[in-house]
Amino acid sequence: MKFTFDNWLLSRNDFHDKFNKGIPIPLKMMYGVIKKETEKCYYIEVEGKPTPSSTCLHCGRKITNKVSLYYGLGMVCGKHYGITNVSEENLEKKLEEIRSKLKKVKWVGLVPKKNVVIEDEISYEIIFEYKNKVYRVITTDETKVNEIKNKSDNILGIKTSKV
Ligand SMILES: [Zn+2]
Q: What pLDDT sits at residue 84?
């Protein structure tokens, strides 16, 4: 599931002090599961994932840098996670590194339901041709979908489903 948190949850506040050892949520958008649920709160386990986005996954501001749009972290915010020197030429090489760095950004804790929007993640099944071979890939990673669209010789089909 995809979680989008409001800005209040991204900063240190009384709620986090009381229930989450004072640790605010590190990214505006994260992915994971609901472990427990009460009437007003979710107890969640989430991690980061690169997501093509026009707003920053960390701070929610509009992204202006062209390369940053592909993985959803502005230049300044990316540095918090050790993501630097991403140019258009080495983006594909860097994406694996960005993926593994964001996967390590984890958070576990309690959030009030009114401060979070939860959506199903979209899973893509793509059948494509590359150098005269046909491949089938299933992924929820939109940066991977874009990579395949850019690199493959021919897209034979894309199916989406909610997970
Ligand atoms: Zn940012």
A: 87
Distance, CA of 28 to CA of 26 (rounded, Å): 7
Question: Residue 93 Cα, ligand 1 centroid: separation in angstroms?
Answer: 22
Give yes or no for a contact between 44 and 109, defined as CB atoms under 8 angstroms apart.
yes
Find the mean pLDDT for residues 87-113. Answer: 93
Rg (CA), the chain: 17
Q: Are 1 and 34 in contact (CB under 8 A)?
A: yes
Instruction: Give every strand in the sheet of 122-130, ordered side by side.
Output: 133-139, 122-130, 154-162
Contacts for 93 with CB less than 8 Å, ≥ 6 apart: none
Domain boundaries, the chain: 2-119, 122-162
Distance CA 107, CA 54 (A): 23
Tell me the per-residue pLDDT of 44-69, one tens digit each, with 9 for 90 and over: 999 999 999 999 999 889 999 999 99
Q: Distance from the CA of 61 to the center of ligand 1, in angstroms? A: 6
User: The pTM is what?
Assistant: 0.86
